[in-house]
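Researcher: Sequence of NAD(P)-binding domain-containing protein follows. Predict its structure.
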Amino acid sequence: MKLIVFGASGDVGSRVVTEALARGHNVAAAVRNDAGLGKLPKGVTPVVADIADPAAVAAAMAGQDLAISAVRSPTGREGEIVTLTRSILDAASLTNLRVIIVGGAARLRLPDGSPHTVLSDPNFLPESIVPTARASMAQWELCASEESVNWTYASPSALLQPGQRRGVFRTDTDKLLVDDAGNSEISMEDFAVALVDEAQSAKFPRAAFTVGY
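Model: Prediction complete. Tokens:
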């Protein structure tokens, strides 16, 4: 499969690139500027594209079978992720390309019959994370309203951090996954595994899924 990863030098994007390369896929790795090129591994086709420019993104998508957007916005500018996602979706529409959007956990319903989501529960998130969660929810609402693109929205567990590639995890659609101790987590490595799995299987067309231990 020929696929392009946007945000390829980031925490999740770099792991998606590594996982896709290990499976023998032809990977184009897109970064925002030349400074990111030095962070890319051997074996990829390097691409510089301004994510805010749908025409530039569409040009980068040309000839690919699939796009994965692992783009994030910096602290203090969390809301920019919505604009960047809009650009990715517009480019996917122009090229008729399937796209997987890496999102957040804000939309996920809490377990055990709670009426709340990760974002709406007043006691779940630290205050410092709330701006990111609000932006994540807006990003999800944007994708959910999109009718012209074959998108998939991928939510990690509540805790996403570097770790081991176990290759064993669970998936769901809109429920926060927790383990027997009540923890909700997934390593970035296994989240990348799930993203490449979805790239290959297309189990969630125009739908969302989440991953957790």
